[in-house]
Amino acid sequence: MTKIALYDLDKTITKRPTYLPFLLHAAWRYDRRRLIFLPGFGILFALYLVRALDRGGLKERMQDMLLGSPVDAEKMAAITESFAEATLANNLHPQALDRIAREKATGYRLVLATASYSFYAGPLAQRLGFDDVIGTEVERDEDGNILAKIDGENCYGDAKLRRVQVWAEAQGLAKDDIEIRFYSDSPTDLPVFDWSDEPLPTNPTSKLRKIADKRGWRIFAWG
After folding, report:
1. Is the pTM of this model over 0.70?
2. Hey, how many other C-beta atoms are within 10 angstroms of the C-beta on 19?
3. 218 CA to centre of own chain
4. In this structure, what are the phi and psi dihedrals at residue 180, rounded to the nearest 5 degrees?
5. Residue spans per domain, the chain
6. Which of 179, 174, 208, 167 has its CA nearest to residue 191?
């Protein structure tokens, strides 16, 4: 039996969301002149609230506004490394680090499953000792540069479960041969909670806490 510890990232391992901080970190280092477009985020969030944009579309337009498209992949690789270091320094729950280290030591395969873009979540996951990353992918041009366009699905809600299942199949891991515990703060991850063997709501929202209490799930409240 293969033991897998599956983790969400934002507000589960981290104290705060990572996407906007990443964009600000990257824009300042890549082309800080684009920060002039930051007030335009108000329009994007308004469009999202009236459902003129879905979460994936919002993510794409935020990226395009602050970073542009395409973005040089080599320069962005260095920026994602510095963002990982900054996140390690000031945006992680110590209890999460302890839990991850204990699971690593006891033979769990550590997998990060996040709606965040894998190109910036990957360097952080590597530093934390994760074995695999399942995240939102970006399209790239013929030179490998990053485009402000999601490749496939935004790894969120039902799509996250589909991505996890595809990953497991690609690894040759049948559901009956794996034991999965899943950590997340959000009720949008209910599809993965229900699929896992050990759902572990972590820093849960009030909605998720009510669901967890009703179902008798163990709750972690870090920090």
Report:
1. yes
2. 19
3. 22
4. -115, 125
5. 2-16+77-215
6. 208
